[in-house]
Amino acid sequence: MDTATPDQALCRLEDIPNGGAIAVDAVLRDGEESVIVLRRDDAVRAYLNICPHAGRRLDWAPGKFLVKDSLIVCAAHGAAFQDMDGLCVGGPCRGEHLRAVGVRVTDGEVWLDD
């Protein structure tokens, strides 16, 4: 997969299953990172693909996430995060947050937000 830079779209809105998530590689201020992009209807949120519990990726396979009942679950230790604010509501890092990445939707495409 190509790595998106601030002048390129991360993905198209239609690439993200409604109620689901995908991973994209993006160049952020701190360098290249894997970013989780979640969608609920037309609302999109993005977070670094790093669990605050142990610093591991949340996907169970590259770009594949367990999202159920508006929660994204870390494949490593089962921490459960609310999709729209990244708050951990279950598991070993309860009360912590995923690190948000600013995004916007323009003309059906998801862009990094400066």
What does this entry look like structurally?
The protein has 114 residues and is mainly beta. It has a single domain, classed as 3-layer Sandwich (Rieske Iron-sulfur Protein), CATH 2.102.10.10. Helix content is 0%, strand content 44%. It is built from no helices and eleven strands. A four-stranded mixed sheet has the order 1-3-4-5, with no helix packed on it.
Number of strands: 11
- Strand and helix order: EEEEEEEEEEE
- Characterize the main sheet: 4 strands, mixed
Report the uncertain regions. none
**Whole-number total of structural domains:** 1
**CATH architecture annotation name:** 3-layer Sandwich
- Provide the β-strand percentage band: 35-45%
DSSP summary: helix tally: 0
| Helix proportion range | under 10%
CATH class: Mainly Beta
Q: Mean pLDDT across all residues, rounded?
A: 92
As an assembly, this protein is single chain
Category by helix and strand content: mainly beta
- Named CATH topology: Rieske Iron-sulfur Protein
Q: Which of globular, elongated, flat, extended, rod-shaped describes the shape?
A: globular
Strand order of the largest sheet: 1-3-4-5
What value does the Rg take, in angstroms? 13 Å
Distance between the termini: 22 Å
